Amino acid sequence: MLAGSPQQSYSREEARRVLGISERQLRGWERQELVPRLEEFAFADLIALRSLQKLRADRVAPARIRSAVRALRTKLHGVENPLKEVKVFCEGRKIAVILDGQKMEAVSGQLLLDFDRKELKTLLSFPPEGHGRAVVSDAKTREAEAWFEKGLELEQTGAPPEEIVAAYQRALEIDPSSAGAAVNLGTVFFHLRRWEEAERVYLQALEIDATYALAHFDLGNLFDERGNPERAEHHYQAALKINPNYADAHYNLALLAQNRGDVMKAVRHWKEYLKLDGASSWAAIAKRELEKLRHAAVVPGAAGGGPTVVRRLSPVDG
Predict the structure, then answer these.
(1) Which one, of 318, 34, 35, lies nearest residue 179 by Cα?
(2) How is domain 130-210 classified at the CATH fold level?
(3) What's the pLDDT tens digit per position in 184-213?
(4) Which residues of the chain register pLDDT less than 70?
(5) What pTM does this model have?
(6) Options 3.30.1490.20, 1.25.40.10, 3.40.50.1010, 1.10.10.10; which CATH number does 212-318 get?
(7) How is the chain split into domains, by residue range?
C-alpha cells in the first residue's frame, strides 16, 4: 500500500524506490505513452503508476491500456487521467473501472454490475477493441513483450544497432499489433538515416494505433529532417490533435513557423510550449527565441543571428 500525503512530492528515484520499479521500466512506460515523463511526482502520480504496475503485472498489453485510458478520458467527463482519478484494474481478460461504486469494462462499455437508469443514460458505448485484428495468445504476447524489453535494454546499453533492430523486429513478428515496437524500430532506423524504413514502420505503428501521438511526432521529425516542412507540420499537428498537451510538438511547430517567417504562429507555439514545459533545459532556448521574435517586432530584422536551434526529438532521445 502507498503511504503519503496528497501534498508530498517525490523525486524520480524516490518514486521508483517506493514502487519497486527500475528506471528501465519507467522509461519504457514513458516511451509507450502510458505515463508522462516527470522528474518530480505528486502522490496522485504514484497512484497512477501503481495502477499501471498492477495492469502490467496482469500481462495487459500497453496498446490495450492506452486504448482503455483514451476511452475513459473521452467518455467520463471531467476525468483527465483515469489511472489517477478512478480505480482501473484487470478482471479476467478485460480492463475494468470502478465508477461511483459500480463496475464497467473500460473499452467496450459493457456493464459488469447493474447501473441505475440515470447512470445508463450518461454512459455512451465505447468503441469496440481490435477492429478485426488477429488475436495474439497470452504466451505470444509475453514473448513479444520480452523482445520489446530486450530492445529497450540494448538501446540503453549502447548495443550495436543491428542487435536492437533484430529485437524490435522479432517483437513485431510475434505480435504484429505492437505499436510501441514499431515506433522504437522506426526511431532506430531514423538515427541510422534509413529514411524509407523508418517511414514504413512509423506508418505501421499508426495502422495499429491511429491515435498514437508519438508515431505522428516521429514522422514529423522524419519529414523535417528530409526537407519536407509541409508534411512535418501535418504530423506535428496530428500529434497535437490527439494530445493537445504535447509540448515537444509545440516546440517543433514553433521552429517550423519561425523558419518560414510566420512570426505570429511561432510566438503562439513558443508560448504554448513554455506553459507545458517551462522548467526544462529546453525552455531556456524557447524563451530566447520568443524574446528574439518580440525584439524583431520592435526592431525589424532583429530576429536573425544567434545559435542554431535544433528540433526536439522523442523525450528519451534527448
Answers:
(1) 34
(2) 1.25.40
(3) 999 999 999 999 999 999 999 999 988 888
(4) 1-8, 58, 71-138, 297-318
(5) 0.61
(6) 1.25.40.10
(7) 9-122, 130-210, 212-318
